[in-house]
Specification:
Function: Prolyl cis/trans isomerase with specificity for phospho-Ser-Pro bonds.
Structural class: alpha+beta
GO cellular component, one term: cytosol
Shape: globular
CATH class: Alpha Beta
Radius of gyration: 12 Å
InterPro entries: PPIase_dom_sf, PPIase_Pin1, PPIase_PpiC, PPIase_PpiC_CS
CATH topology: Chitinase A, domain 3
Catalytic activity: [protein]-peptidylproline (omega=180) = [protein]-peptidylproline (omega=0)
Largest sheet: 4 strands, antiparallel
Order of helices and strands: EHHEHEE
Helix content: 25-40%
Domain PpiC: 1-95
Length: 95
C-alpha cells in the first residue's frame, strides 16, 4: 500500500491547523495544486521531499488512526483531516 500525507508546519491551534490543512486539501481536490507540491511545501514529515509519498506499509506499521483512515480509502481517494499523536494529516491513497 502506498500512501501520501501532508501536515502543516506552523505553530498554531489544532483548529487553525485543521482549517489550513483542509484549505490545502480543497486546493488539491479542485486541481489548483498537486498533492506532491503541497506536501513538499507544508509537510513536516520526512516524506515531504518525496511529495508526501510514504511508500508501501502494512498493518501495524503506522499509528492506528492513520492506518484506519488509509485502509478506509479507495485508491485515488483523499481523506479529510486525520488526527494522530503526530499531528493532523490528509492522506492520498495511491496504491
Amino acid at each position: 500500500m502506498t500512501d501520501e500525507s501532508a501536515t502543516t508546519t506552523t505553530t498554531q491551534t489544532k483548529e487553525a491547523a485543521i482549517d489550513e490543512l483542509l484549505r490545502y486539501r480543497d486546493a488539491v481536490a479542485n486541481g489548483e495544486a498537486t498533492f506532491a507540491d503541497v506536501a513538499k511545501k507544508v509537510s513536516d514529515c520526512s516524506s515531504a521531499k518525496r511529495g508526501g509519498d510514504l511508500g508501501e506499509f502494512g498493518p501495524g506499521q503506522m499509528q492506528r488512526a492513520f492506518e484506519d483512515a488509509t485502509y478506509a480509502l479507495k485508491i485515488g481517494e483523499m481523506s479529510e483531516a486525520v488526527e494522530t499523536d503526530s499531528g493532523v494529516h490528509v492522506i492520498l491513497r495511491t496504491g
